[in-house]
Design a protein that fits this description.
The protein has 273 residues and is an alpha+beta fold. It folds into three domains: 31 residues; 141 residues, hypothetical protein (bacova_03559) (Immunoglobulin-like); 77 residues, no CATH class. Helix 4 packs across helix 6. The longest helix is centred in the N-terminal third of the chain and has 26 residues.
């Protein structure tokens, strides 16, 4: 009799548990709940430092480089992913981003424009912050910065939870620049000969000419970004010979190429021996 009573309790318990599980599953209920929290989605530093990667994909330090865009481009859109931890909402929820004036040199309405309203979409865990960045003359002189901070409000907390990959941040610093400086190792020093020994003085226009000349050698033709980050410093003696031959050929056909300051463009001292 005792054995039958025990079995009855076990069976009853199984029925109750199964019924509860099916009821929750059927109604779509979630048996746990936590406060919603927002964070910037951060690409690992290695990806950001990879020059062939997209610099707009890292969000603890993002960059807009107009120097690799056509002169006709006057503005662009910087996209920064924002993710939510917690239960998705059935309705859009407003969230707050503040500009930190201490870390910002860019001017709102002049160098950039933030969205007028910020709402995290319903039934989503990922949103995209879209910033309009304007190509202003100040970016030719120095890189401008924009420091953004996620702020808590009635809808969201801003609390970073443990993350081994360190791919979460509540602050983001944006850099806007139209400066194209020589890549590391290009300029000669007192002790080390740089790539300028082969290419000559670096300039934005010379990079464009090198890219055009390289397009006659490499397939597919490289972009200026590829030349700048990869080809320029890989084998200066070879690519500079391509540049020198191209400049000489253009001159022979009556199409002498000049720098922006009006001086004739030339390769480096190596070709003046």
């Amino acid at each position: 009799m005792k054995m039958k009573y025990t079995n009855y309790l076990i069976i009853t318990g199984i029925i109750l548990i199964t019924g509860t599980h099916l009821s929750c599953k059927k109604s779509g209920l979630i048996v746990y709940e936590s406060a919603r929290s927002l964070y910037f989605d951060v690409t690992p530093k290695e990806a950001f430092l990879n020059p062939e990667g997209d610099p707009t994909k890292t969000t603890d330090s993002v960059m807009v480089l107009f120097s690799f865009m056509e002169n006709a481009v006057t503005e662009t859109e910087l996209k920064i992913p924002i993710k939510m931890a917690g239960i998705q909402s059935e309705v859009p929820l407003a969230y707050t981003i503040a500009i930190n004036p201490v870390g910002s040199s860019a001017t709102d309405g002049v160098d950039f424009e933030l969205p007028k309203q910020l709402h995290f979409p319903s039934r989503q865990s990922v949103d995209t912050l879209r910033i309009k960045v304007k190509r202003t003359k100040g970016m030719l002189q120095k890189a401008l910065t924009l420091a953004l901070e996620l702020k808590p409000n009635e809808n969201f907390e801003v609390v970073l939870k443990p993350n081994i990959l360190k791919t979460r941040a509540t602050n983001v610093r944006c850099y806007f620049s139209d400066i194209l400086s020589p890549p590391p190792g290009y300029v000669s020093t007192e002790t080390v000969s740089g790539a300028d020994f082969y290419y000559g003085t670096f300039s934005r226009k010379k990079l464009s000419v090198i890219t055009t000349a390289a397009g006659n050698i490499f397939l597919p033709p490289p972009t200026e970004r590829t030349v700048y980050y990869t080809l320029l410093m890989r084998d200066p003696s070879f690519l500079s010979s391509v540049l020198n031959s191209y400049l000489q050929m253009q001159k022979l056909t009556g199409n002498t190429i000049y720098e922006e300051d009006g001086t004739e463009m030339a390769a480096g001292p190596f070709y003046k021996k």
